[in-house]
């Protein structure tokens, strides 16, 4: 993994410094769309219709350290009308691609009460401790890209507040001086000009500090950043990156992450358990979407599959589902909560794109969700 990250860093920072304003890398063999094709929203839509963006509690109280070992709390937001919190990872090409311009925005908007703060998410060891090797890489990237603003390392407070619900990078949120989120979250990288439009709009629409509105409470799922398409308690926590994995199918054959690179632009992964209701309908619906598109590939990840291989194959056969049914990676098995089938969208390079979708959602939701995921992948977002 370290070798791969170094290769990415060299490719994006050393050999291609002059290309930072070019399109972010897209999936192998995938058609690359222009920025206007991949992002049909207008600036007005990007800023939401309301002139006063919704405010929600987010980073109101936390303790952490930055990449230089300094203690950081919610006081980092104090005295700044607006803070851009950019959640990124060292393996993410689009993240690195936009960081030079984020560094420029941090300097250019300083006098307007604005700042940029980074949150690199891939600096923890499996036991939850900080990897100094990864922190060194964070600092190296920050230096070479000019992203010399503060980079806060994940702490349990930050994980609980936001990071546990991040399923793809880069993701960006804006907060006020109290750490309350202002407006929506922004998935994927953007050009400097696009960010300027968003920042200018937010700064202009935000009330003065003395007149700031109290945070508006949202329902628990929305405040936690969980897709409203996921019912009950189903959620993804610390979504895994399918960068490299090896598992087996129901016949014991070895399957690797190469299954994500079979000439399609996106892989849909149906996560299900033999004990859940709605499996047959989910398998049928998935098969219908796979038949209707050459842009998507399909796999199943079956939880608690050991000893039930025959039952699983029979369920899939009866549903007419001919896509591979795999045993989940150890990481995935520990990240799913719930009791109903759901679908993940996975880019060819292994990143989960957007939020998971409840397989019981209607046809309109499925179609919109797949279209959004394809747009994101073709624009090079999400690692």
Verbal overview:
The protein has 383 residues and is α+β, with helices and mostly antiparallel strands. The chain folds into two domains: 149 residues, Glutaredoxin (3-Layer(aba) Sandwich), CATH 3.40.30.10; 132 residues, Glutaredoxin (3-Layer(aba) Sandwich). The protein has a five-stranded mixed β-sheet with strand order 14-13-12-16-17. A four-stranded mixed β-sheet has the order 5-4-6-8, covered by helices on one side. Helix 10 links the parallel strand 13 and strand 14. The chain starts with a helix and ends in a 5-residue tail after the last helix. 43% of the residues are buried. The N terminus is likely disordered.
Notable traits:
alpha+beta; Glutaredoxin; 2 domains; 17% strand; disulfide bond; Thioredoxin_CS; Thiol:disulfide interchange protein, thioredoxin family protein; Thioredoxin-like_sf
- Say which CATH homologous superfamily of the largest domain is assigned: Glutaredoxin
Q: Report the strand count.
A: 17
Mean of residue pLDDT? 78
How large is the count of helical segments? 12
Instruction: Work out the strand percent.
Output: 15-25%
> Would you give the CATH topology of the largest domain?
Glutaredoxin
Question: Could you give a quick summary of the protein structure above?
Answer:
InterPro entries: Redoxin, Thioredoxin-like_sf, Thioredoxin_CS, Thioredoxin_domain, Thioredoxin_ResA/DsbE_sf. This protein is of the alpha+beta class and 383 residues long.
